Hints:
mainly alpha, Hypothetical protein af1432
Amino acid sequence: MDLIEQTREYVSEVLADEPSTHDMSHIERVEEVCMRIREKEGGNEQVLRLAALLHDVGIVKEHQEGGDHAQYSAEIAHEFLTVAGADKGLIEHVTACIRSHRFSHGLEAQTLEAQILQDADRIDALGAVGIFRSLVSMGALRALRSTIGTVKETSMNAYTEDPLEGFYEYMERKPFKILERLNTGTAREIAGERLKVMHAYLGALQEETCYIK
């Protein structure tokens, strides 16, 4: 089994019971978008696939202990790739991409591959799948608070008494600010199309719920 498929199998096992939207379907969508961006922008395929597959592998630890899943993921990726016999330079490149991927931390991507991973991860928060993920994530975070007491400080909108209010707050805070923070032209093209879907949905939701800001 080559390193990519070995990594895919490992991550699938780690995220098998992941209750939020950092699950294996998210991982593979990010991988696919990385490849789509790479077709036009370039970048090392192996680095991108490994970084995409491993970028959220620390989310389970974040749920259990709090902290930063990007940092956890980089540490876990480093250990996994080292045991797998990967080249030191490859490991350093992959883990650097993972550390800077997270939207809420605003870290600057230092390489093209890190920029592409950032873009692909952010794009998965847009469009129809972005709406789906945000609602599932809100439910999962509320459930985690009630069952094990975990509260995610960067997603306080999930805990509002009125879920609709929390959803609108999330939409204004994250998805509609993503376009201006993308690194590549290809990503901006994809994001522009997905944002049309989100604007249309939000307009319909406001009309149906008589929501007034």
